[in-house]
Amino acid sequence: MTKQISLNTLWNSAISKDRVFHPYEFSHLPETARQYLEHAIAPGTAIASAVRLLMHGEIKLKKWIPFKAEQVICWERGLIWSATAWLNGFPIWGSDRIIDGVGAMQWKLLGLFPVMTATDSDITRSTFGRLQTESTLLPSVFCGDDVSWTKMDSSHLHSSFVVQGERGELARLRIGWYFGTERFESEGEFFRVTIDDAIYR
Q1: For residues 102-127, b (16+ Cβ closer than 10 Å) or e, as one string?
Q2: Over the stretch 72-82, which tens digit does the pLDDT of each residue have?
């Protein structure tokens, strides 16, 4: 069973690394990797271990419905995505999360009636993949000593890194349902989002 901690608890558990970003420390990386880090993190900026995001967008649940959400990614512990979506004018509140290696989803209509509640190995695998993918929203992840880069061509990189004891691989991101089938292109897209604010710690 997943630990039901709040966004604020997760945010406050972020551990400061007491390290700042100096581009010269990454001069050994492929040029495209250096350019990415120098664009994403200003020189002299503290290397963050967490990010708190405000966002809005649409999610596809048979049809596209609007949502607003807040998310915390704490690299040492996991993530919580807490959102409100509106289906036929009624709010659905809930969260997707992975905390200390255990994933869960819990969604309720009007905050009272369960729509979806799940925590098992499939949910953990799914939310773990989400943590790996959304690490791009916390660029300091790619400053770690356990990150390796491979240049694929002049503008594409492959990154390999460890999160919560598991190795993640990122190159090109495409997110949706039915991956690897013809349905991916026609039906797979399910999430559109705009990041309204990001705070790093």
Answers
A1: bbbbbbeeeeeeebeeebeeebbeeb
A2: 999 889 999 99
